Amino acid sequence: xxxxxxxxxxxxxxxxxxxxxxxxxxxxxxxxxxxxxxxxxxxxxxxxxxxxxxxxxxxxxxxxxxxxxxxxxxxxxxxxxxxxxxxxxxxxxxxxxxxxxxxxxxxxxxxxxxxxxxxxxxxxxxxxxxxxxxxxxxxxxxxxxxxxxxxxxxxxxxxxxxxxxxxxxxxxxxxxxxxxxxxxxxxxxxxxxxxxxxxxxxxxxxxxx
Length: 209
Prior knowledge:
Blueprint: E1 2-7, E2 13-18, E3 29-38, E4 54-62, E5 65-73, E6 80-81, E7 83-86, H1 110-117, E8 120-123, E9 142-143, E10 150-157, H2 160-164, E11 170-174, H3 197-200, E12 202-207
Antiparallel strand pairs: 1-2, 3-4, 3-12, 4-5, 5-10, 6-9, 7-8, 7-11, 11-12
């Protein structure tokens, strides 16, 4: 398999995989789940919020219709949290380890995590677009409550190749209020999209089984 990474409008990184002489991918059906564990970020401040996130997901697939139910706790409260299905179709995908922190700042940003869990394939938005193009649309992201809990349910269509390989992909939750001032601010993301690092920082990850 040859994997090519490309940059598209808005700075979103996606990967295109070209498979030679393989059978076509067909959509699947059934129940899937994921146990979401914290990404091993190191808190830059003693008061940093939202870096000890755990959760679970249940995914029910019928053809290309996906019903997703995701719960999580330990999130930065009252802030939107981007959530996605990440992966490279037909390849092994993993959650990032501490070794993903290539610049040694203690944080594993989205770009540093890409070699482990792959690009965005599906966006868990609350309404509208669920494609990779909506990956960093904070206005459609689910908002954690005042206790840092998140509860998301939605049914929508996903691409057939994603449906056919769902059990090899990962769910990633993003967003941490590192300076605990109640907003996403500070240093900009390395994605080059004009959003703060806090907003796109991966905080929880889990394999879909």
